[in-house]
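Residues determine shape. We examine one folded chain.
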Amino acid sequence: MVEDQETAEAEAHLIEVEEDKKICGIDEAGRGCLAGPLVVAGVVLTKKIDGLNDSKKLTEKKREELFETIKKNSIYKIVWSDNETIDKIGLSKALKNSLQNITSFFKEYHIIFDGNTSFGVRGITALIKADALIAEVSAASILAKVSRDRYMRDISKEFPLYNFQKHKGYGTKEHIELIKRYGYSKLHRKCFKIKELNQPSLFK
């Protein structure tokens, strides 16, 4: 029931923002990961692109195809925060800094961020499920996820024990078992405590 209400509210808001044709969509990838970077993308489409959707609802092959199409038909900015930065300043601050970076780049646009908070950044409209409702946000979600997935596949060659190419740093059962066996790598976020390791958890 709550989810249906949120969807209805998001669709109602969509009617309002469609009147403003100058939209920049923002989305992120890697927020909840135990290892690897946070990647935030901002996208302004210069041409309509068919097949856009929340990146999590698309196959890897489709995301890769759309990734190249989006890059050719948009103005975009991708901001990276590595795990050391996240450990130093915290995830929320890293995300806020990324959002500020992107909003500074797209000053003349109506900026919509997928989620329920703007992290205190002025000039951003936070909209739940925007990645499935607004093309620019869908495109941003694809750029962020594909960029990060490619990085995690590449970096896995330096950390072969952890299978980063498979789970991309998310807290899967396999990943947690590998951390138990080998400890943290230089790519892991030390500030993210894991309940299965008998540590206080950030995810309670």
Q: What stands out?
A: The beta strands are 23-29, 38-45, 74-81, 110-114, 124-127. The chain has eight helices and five strands.
